[in-house]
Amino acid sequence: MYEIEMFKWIREKNGVYDLASSGVLKLEAPQAEAPPLEEVLIELYDIPRQNLAIVSGAQEGNFLAFLAVKPEYAVITVPEYEPIIKLPSSLGVRHVKVWDVWEAPIKPGGVLIFSNPNNPTGRYLEKRELAELADEARRKGAYLIIDIIFSDFVTDDLRGFPLENVAYSHSTDKFYTHDLRAGWVFGDEEIVRRVKYLKDLANPGPREAERKAAAALLSRRAEVKRRNLSIIKPNATALLTRFPNALYKPHMPIALIPTGCNDAKLAERLLAMGVKTVPGRLFQAPYSIRVGLGVEEPPRFREALEILAQGWCRA
């Protein structure tokens, strides 16, 4: 139980081509000065200062928000990012799994936790849909914790998130991939206040160098997005040409490809051929493979696709 199998797979497996990573090719932080990280984020999301907490990463943000809410039970959608799936059980909180957020039994004292866009499917709820869910949670005395680490890939509309009874987590780890990492939580003022307190109890980071690097990258968001899409878009075109049945949200750095065969065995076979992917069962999406589109440059990505096609399941 006490192991994140996806991390074990990614850390221990090595391939010539990296189609396992869900981020983008590493960026260098600009050397120019930027406003303090808090100021950059307040402007980016158009939120009050008291609705923002700086943390060390999105996963820490999810963890602290969960502790802050102290739910009696949790609802998880699947497929989903493994650390989100395992968060409630690791803290001894009873939970149920559903296939769709609209199926979630939202009741007093509960929390619905999910990624948006979803990792690995890319499914994305617009803000009007988030507002509907948040309103239902508020009326029923429940909460939402939403990991939005992939949101910058699919939208530039970052203002107007519903805040009441909601906590959003994000970090520089995907869209702004860099050696230094910083994260943030924003949302309901009372949840954020508790997150800040819990953060101070556990870990006072991120450090000043991490804050400065994050602020510099966030201040150049449009430039970073152009760079990211210059890699992702041609790779996505190549992927969908070869695998038109892939589940893919435009501009996302990941896709989920149905396999029609045992995904773990397929991933091992592809690895032996030099291509590192992630078995879908690690997201509770068996018979599928997750592929990353943001790390390998287009020429190398096309080479990796040829190997995927050669090693793929046969009917």
Automatic annotation (TrEMBL):
One of its GO terms (molecular function) is transaminase activity. The keyword Transport does not apply. Keywords: Aminotransferase, Transferase. InterPro entries: Aminotransferase_I/II_large, PyrdxlP-dep_Trfase, PyrdxlP-dep_Trfase_major, PyrdxlP-dep_Trfase_small. Residues 30-295 form the Aminotransferase class I/classII large domain. This is Aminotransferase, putative. GO terms for biological process: amino acid metabolic process. Pfam families: Aminotran_1_2 (PF00155). It comes from the Archaea. The keyword Heme does not apply.
